[in-house]
Amino acid sequence: MRVATDIGGTFTDLVAVDDNGKIIVGKSDTTPNKFEKGIFNVIEQANIDLKDIQMFFHGTTVVINTLTEKTGVKTGLITTKGFRDVLEIARGNRPDLFNLKYKKPEPIVERHLRKEISERLDYKGEVISPLNTDELNEILTYFKEYNVKAIAVSLLHSYKNDEHEKQVLNYIRTNYPEFSVTISSELSKEWREYERTSTAAFNAYVKPIAHDYLTNLEQNLIDKSSCKKNYIMQSNGGTSTFEIAKKTPINMIESGPVAGIFGASILGEVIDENNLIVLDIGGTTAKCSLVENGNVKISTNYHMEKTERYAGYPLKVPVVDIIEIGNGGGSIAWIDDSGSIKVGPKSAGADPGPIAYGRGGNKPTTTDANILLGRLALRNFETSTSLEEIKNKFEISLGKQLNTKTDDLAMGIVKIANSNMLNALKLISVRKGYDPRDFTLVAIGGGGPMHSQALARELGIKKVVIPSTSSVFASWGMLMSDIRHDYSQTLLLPARGISYKEVNSVYDEIIRKAEETLNTEGVEASDVVITKSLDMRYEGQEHTVEIHVPYENIDENNIEEIIKNFHENHDRMYSYTLPENELEIVNIKIQALGKLEKPKMIETDTEEGTALKEEREVFYEESGWIHVSVYDKNKLKVEESVTGPAIIEEQSTSIILHDGDVLQKDKYGNLVIEIGGQ
């Protein structure tokens, strides 16, 4: 049996598939103080015998939580002489241009713990001044005195030549093995000193905590289940073994959310839908991403905590291009200083949770609003809370101050939440040169199916797909994933008129390293798949466009086709081209997959009985309260159609059909909705 668990801000999800292809799902509360407890709780609730687990996949928020809550270990930095303040200086392109009181992000390493060492490389990686290791003893003694637990090493131009960083690493391991050490070149071989240093510092900051967490979890799994094939979800949409993840935990920063995006791309292959916009609404956040021609977008320009007014912290690691906002089922509705109602980013979480949970929560949330509108049935919650109690708390918190009826207030909360999500969906589509009408919307998470039809209508999307395991879909995505590692190397060469031998030899060296890593993870050579790409730009530009390279080697015969593809992609993204300008190759990249055996996909079983559960009153914005039919998702027959307005219910979510929407269940249990009026 294969088991995948995903720890979210509110719930811990599980999907398991046995040898016959039967799917088992589970959902339990996240246990923030001890995440492992929530994992074994959900396994127990799903009635899975630990001894039956043959392969285990895991997505976790332990890294992102440690970083955002600033609960990592005390960290020191060793850098090239003259560059100790690179974290403080950061970038000058501040996001809030006219804010005279703008403050840059506070460095994660205190200034007195940022130490310089004598050494210098030039931009080609050639040694100008040799490394003076004699200075290290004084630096490390100082770190010990101030109880430093982890050290980041980031030396100038080490992306071109990592020899000095490796010497520092070996010195510390030999003479001061008590320190946990990260060198920037093992995380990124791309230029930009601030971004590389920031990445190394944050990896060092979280490394001991992630190491202990993964070690404890793995030991528990081995002791209780004897399972030795344990994989962790990475931010690039692939997995790695626990051992690799312990060395570079920063690659797990979006461990959970990206699994759903990758799962959607796999589902798209099965149902013949290659262009997808994926919307994942959980208890705390809403996340969205775009899949083009079956390919998940990956970026190495990730910024933690970035907003319109705050630069955030750059991390130079491969992350699925994902937009995340603080709008989920548990997002709290509140009134700002101007008297306007807002939804999120604060969340009620799992404890106390929304009012409907009956655990002491008294602040209105999106989930409570959907209950008051009849879209969610209170009986599906394990609670003693009544509808009247929810109404009363809405009235106390918001209604009296706004002088608004409860129905209109609840609808307003849903509309504001939808507006926030709509803006996020536009950021990953319209703002990047894509027409949403050319895509199918895949709605996942507990809240996705409730909001997706209204959002699709706003964007002009004609089709919505609700996967059979939508509320725990990120876990399903993990089961379908492969081991994956991404590598890049900055070259900065003209695209034309050069000897391509250097480019191809660097590709060969990176591929050799990737194959060695996959071999240590137990991947056979026949199961390795390599994909190449280039980051290119017009000469004099700052940023790049990634272009797929479908050739074994780059040469004079195919470089013009690559350049043509660059012009086309640049035009789509920025709506102009400069064909008369010279081009540069900035980074070469490879994606290395270690293919894992996938579980079978079997056709769905339909539960016995009538699908129609009841008729009830539901509030729609266009028509107010109307009488609609409510259906049990599990009792819908394959190819059976339902026309909106209607509601399709399951234990963990509801699908809201608007007037004219037509839903049909496919043979795998997915719900395919044609949006009315499009």
From TrEMBL:
GO terms for cellular component: cytosol. Residues 2-174 form the Hydantoinase/oxoprolinase N-terminal domain. One of its GO terms (molecular function) is 5-oxoprolinase (ATP-hydrolyzing) activity. Residues 196-486 form the Hydantoinase A/oxoprolinase domain. Coiled coil: none annotated. Residues 501-668 form the Acetophenone carboxylase-like C-terminal domain. GO terms for biological process: glutathione metabolic process. Pfam families: Hydant_A_C, Hydant_A_N, Hydantoinase_A. PANTHER family: 5-OXOPROLINASE RELATED, HYPOTHETICAL 5-OXOPROLINASE (EUROFUNG)-RELATED. This is N-methylhydantoinase A.
